Amino acid sequence: MITILSGGTGTPKLLRGLKEIVDDFAVIVNTAEDIWISGNKLCPDIDSVIYALADIIDEERWWGIRGDTFRTHEQLRKLGWDEFMVIGDLDRATHIFRSELLRRGHTLTEATRILKNAFGVKAEVLPMCEEEVATIVVTPEGEMHFQEFWVKRRGEPDVLDVYFKGIENAKATDDVIKALEKCDGIIIGPSNPITSIMPIVSVKGVKERLRRKKVVAVSPIIGNKPVSGPAGKFMKAKGFDVSPLGVADVYADFLDVLVVHCSDTDFAGEYDGIEVLATDIIMRDKNDAKNLAEFLLEIM
Ligand code: GDP
Q1: Overall pTM surpassing 0.85 (yes/no)
Q2: CA gap 251, 224 in Å, rounded
Q3: Atom in ligand 1 nearest the alpha carbon of residue 30
C-alpha cells in the first residue's frame, strides 16, 4: 500500500493515473489553503483530490466539477454579495454538505470520508490534521491569506515570506499516522513544495514517520520554472533555488528519490544522498499520468 502527499493540482493529475493501476492507497491532503466563504468551508485541495479520483474534475482549470454552472455565484453578485472565489453550483453542494457535517459535530476526517464515499472514491482521502491552519503570504502590501493572494490578487504581489498560521497546534490524525506507518512507501506528488507539501510535513508527527520510509518525490519544477502556479515565487521567498534541486533541498530531511523531467538529465544521478531519476513528468492527459504512476510504483 502506498501513501501520497497532495496539494490541489499537480498531484491530483497524478492520482488520476495511479487509480487506474492500484486501488489501495491513501492520500494525505494539505488543508492550509482551506477557507470559509459564504458560510461554507472550502477545502480546495481535498475537493480537487476527490474530484480527480471520481473522474469529474474540470480538466481546464484543475479545480471544480466539469460542466458546472455558476448561477448561484452570479445571483449572489447581483444581490450585492461578491464572493472573491468563483464557486460552481455543484461544487457548492460539496461545501454545503461538508459544512453541515462539521456543524453537526463530525470531524473534518469523518466529513471527508463521507464525501469521498458519496463520490464513489475507493482510496482513502485524509486531511493532514483537524486543527485549522492558514497559509499567510507576506507581501510589501501586508499579509494576506493564500486564497486572497492567489485568487483575488491573481498572484501578483511580490512575496517576502510565507508562514502557516496555527501550524504549531496541528497534530497528525490517527488516520494520517496509520497511513504513514502501514504503507510500503510514500510518494510526494508534483505539488507546490512550499504551500502544499511544507504544511503537511510540518504537522506534528509527520516528518519523523517520513524519515522511516522510502520517500519518492516528483518535481513540480522543470528547468527553472514551475509547470504552473506560483511555486517559483514561494521557493525564492523561502531561500530555495527555483530548480529541481531546489525541490530536493526543501525535502532533504526525508527524501530518498527525486524524479525530474527528461530535459533535466544534467541533474540525474545523485544529489546530496538523494537519487535523481529522469522521465517525462508532464501530465498532458490521463495516459501520461498513468505512465508516470507506473514509473513511480516501479521505483517503490
Ligand atoms: P495547488 O494546491 O493548486 O497549488 O496544487 P499543487 O500544489 O498540488 O500543484 C501545483 C504544482 O503542480 C505547481 O507547482 C506545478 O508546477 C505542478 N504541476 C502542475 N501540472 C504538472 C505536471 O503535469 N507535471 C509536473 N511535474 N508538475 C505539475
Answers
A1: yes
A2: 17
A3: 2
**How many CA atoms within 13 Å lie on the side-chain side of 225?**
5
CA 84-88-91 angle, 5° bins: 110
Q: Which residue is it, cell 460539496? A: 94
Of the candidates 165, 158, 162, 136, which has an alpha carbon nearest to the alpha carbon of residue 238? 162
List strand residue ranges (DSSP E) for the chain, in order. 2-6, 25-29, 35-37, 40-42, 124-127, 134-139, 142-145, 161-165, 185-188, 215-218, 221-222, 225-226, 257-261, 269-271, 274-279
Q: Is 227 in the pocket of ligand 1 (CB under 6 A)?
A: yes
Question: How far apart (Å, rounded) are the C-alpha atoms in residues 94 and 37?
Answer: 13
Domains and CATH numbers, the chain: 2-133+167-299 (3.40.50.10680)
- Nine cell digits for residue 227: 509547470
Q: Is 262 in the pocket of ligand 1 (CB under 6 A)?
A: no
pLDDT score recorded for residue 267:
81
Distance from the alpha carbon of residue 13 to the mean position of ligand 1, in angstroms: 8
- Distance of CA 226 from the midpoint of ligand 1 (Å): 7
Q: Could you tell me whether strands 257-261 and 215-218 are parallel, antiparallel, or unpaired per DSSP bridges?
A: parallel
Q: What is the pLDDT of residue 130?
A: 98
What is the rounded CA–CA span in Å between residue 95 and residue 18? 26
Convert the pLDDT of each residue in 143-175 to its tens digit: 999 999 999 999 999 999 999 999 999 999 999
Q: What is the mean pLDDT for each group of 10 consecutive residues in the chain (300 residues)?
A: 97 98 96 97 98 97 96 98 95 98 98 98 98 98 96 95 98 98 98 98 98 98 96 97 97 98 89 95 97 97
Q: Which residue CA neighbors atom 21 of ligand 1 most closely?
A: 10
